[in-house]
Every structure is written in structure tokens, then in C-alpha cells.
TrEMBL record:
Residues 6-86 form the Shikimate dehydrogenase substrate binding N-terminal domain. This is Shikimate dehydrogenase (NADP(+)). The keyword Repeat does not apply. Shikimate binds at S14, K15, S16, T59, N84, D99, Y204, Q231. NADP(+) binds at E75, V202, G224. The gene is aroE. Its EC number is 1.1.1.25. It is an enzyme of class 1 (oxidoreductase). GO terms for molecular function: shikimate 3-dehydrogenase (NADP+) activity. It catalyses: shikimate + NADP(+) = 3-dehydroshikimate + NADPH + H(+). Keywords: Amino-acid biosynthesis, Aromatic amino acid biosynthesis, NADP, Oxidoreductase. The lineage of its organism: Bacteria, Pseudomonadati, Campylobacterota, Epsilonproteobacteria, Campylobacterales. Residues 112-177 form the Quinate/shikimate 5-dehydrogenase/glutamyl-tRNA reductase domain. Involved in the biosynthesis of the chorismate, which leads to the biosynthesis of aromatic amino acids. Catalyzes the reversible NADPH linked reduction of 3-dehydroshikimate (DHSA) to yield shikimate (SA).
Length: 260
């Protein structure tokens, strides 16, 4: 039997066990998927081996650490500098990023996007910004501090208070604001200045202040549930080394989400 889990802080909200276990069941595979609450990033590598895992999904705030501890990284992970999927083989850690292709699948219905604003500069932002770049979408990254801007040398970066351009096709909240609090990712007066057709909230499972803002201002939005679904499909393929099973995996995971 293969053992997998999702690792993060916080982690109790995660629907990953639900979607992966349903896919395991429907495809008749021998495995089980759980969750693990980790508070110390320095214990990520140790925890993977102590839990005797075959693989893991990594969520906030350990996606950059996942790259650091990996023995092997695929090209996408190297480009992004962030990993959300780890495979353990022969005591070696292999790192992948399925967030990036998962995000692109999640926003397929948003048409004619040419300019994007991302709020936040963490590991998820790296995956999203890289995905947008691959689609030739001009991307601006705004954050409360300059601390992580060195990871985005190919992008326009600005502090929230220095943002001068307010016209975008999509605004994306990649911060954790609203996950465990009632905060917006940035000042509400700044959000009110921004004109956009679409919005995307990476958090799922709750109506965050960012989503409430979108509803109040008639902005078409999606939350992170569809991104969770598609990054999960791609991760599942890696976990079980599957090919040509994407539709079956998607169907099983979508069923699990609809049951929640």
C-alpha cells in the first residue's frame, strides 16, 4: 500500500484527503491519503521519512522549503522555485509543481486576459506568475513588503502603496489573508481603485473578505476549489505513475468535492 498526505500550517481545512481518497477508490488503487499539521519548516524533510510516505502535497507555508529539501527538481519547479508535490523514491525526494498548470485550467473560462495583478509574493504567486508568463499575460506583483521580490526578476513588482496602474483584466489574491482571519490582502481603498473584469481567490471553502468584496462590486470571481481539483489531478498522476487516466481522476475528485 502507498501512503500520501498533504502537509501545511494550517491544514485542517484541506479537502485534499477527500479528493485523493475518492480517486484511489474509484480507480481501484492500493493507497491512502491523509493530512499532517507541520509547524516547523525545518522538520519537513524529517517528517516525510518519519511518516514513511510515498509522496506528499505541500501547501502554505512550505512550498519554497519543499524545493530546498529535494534531491531532484523537474524543469517547471526549477523555473518557479516552488513545489507543491513531492515523490519519495529510494530515500530521495523528487519535487514537482502542479499548481501552475492547475491554475491555468482553473481560469480557462476567463477570456481575453492580457494584464494581471497578483496580490502577494509567496510560493503560490511564483506558480501563478510563471503560468501567466507562459501565456504571454503581462503580470504585476504587489505585496506589503519587498522581501520576496528577488524571486520575481522577470516581473513588475511594487509595494501596495506604490501601485500606480489600476487597470487589469484579472486580480488574484495569492495571500493567506482571510484564511484564518477577516482581513483583506491589502487596504480596501486600494482595491476600490482597481478596475478588473475577473478575480481569483486561491483560498477555497469559505467566503473570504476578498470574495465578499468581489460580490459587492459585481466582479466575476472564482475561488481556489477548481485549482485544487486540477493540481490534485496532476499530482495524482505523479503519485501513481498513471497515464491516460486524467478524465477518470477528474471525475472522481469532482464527485468528492460535490459531496462536501
Amino acid at each position: 500500500m502507498k501512503f500520501f498526505c498533504v502537509i501545511g500550517d494550517p491544514i485542517s481545512h484541506s479537502k485534499s484527503p477527500r479528493i485523493h481518497n475518492n480517486a484511489i477508490k474509484h480507480l481501484g488503487l492500493n493507497g491512502i491519503y491523509s493530512r499532517f499539521h507541520l509547524k516547523d519548516k525545518d522538520k519537513l524533510k524529517e517528517s516525510l521519512f518519519k511518516l514513511k510516505l510515498n509522496g506528499a502535497n505541500i501547501t502554505l507555508p512550505f512550498k519554497e522549503e519543499a524545493v530546498k529539501i529535494a534531491d531532484f527538481k523537474d524543469e517547471l519547479t526549477l523555473q518557479i522555485g516552488s513545489a507543491n508535490t513531492l515523490i519519495l523514491k529510494n530515500r530521495k525526494i523528487h519535487a514537482y509543481n502542479t499548481d501552475s498548470p492547475g491554475f491555468l485550467k482553473a481560469i480557462e473560462e476567463f477570456k481575453n486576459i492580457k494584464k494581471a495583478l497578483i496580490l502577494g509574493a509567496g510560493g503560490t504567486t511564483r506558480a501563478i506568475a510563471y503560468a501567466l508568463k507562459q501565456r504571454n499575460i503581462h503580470c504585476t506583483i504587489a505585496n506589503r513588503s519587498e522581501r520576496n521580490f528577488s524571486h520575481f526578476k522577470d516581473f513588475k513588482c511594487t509595494l501596495y502603496e506604490d501601485l500606480k496602474d489600476f487597470e487589469f483584466d484579472i486580480i488574484i489574491n495569492s495571500t493567506s489573508a482571510g484564511l484564518n482571519d477577516d482581513n483583506l490582502p491589502c487596504n480596501v481603498d486600494l482595491l476600490k481603485k482597481i478596475k478588473t473584469k475577473y478575480a481569483f481567490e486561491v483560498i477555497y471553502g469559505k467566503k473570504t473578505p476578498f470574495i465578499k468584496f468581489c460580490e459587492e462590486n459585481n466582479i466575476k470571481y472564482k475561488d481556489g476549489l477548481s485549482m485544487l481539483l486540477w493540481q490534485g489531478v496532476f499530482a495524482f498522476e505523479l503519485f501513481f505513475e498513471l497515464e491516460n487516466k486524467q478524465k477518470q481522476i477528474q471525475k472522481a475528485m469532482l464527485e468528492a468535492l460535490n459531496l462536501s
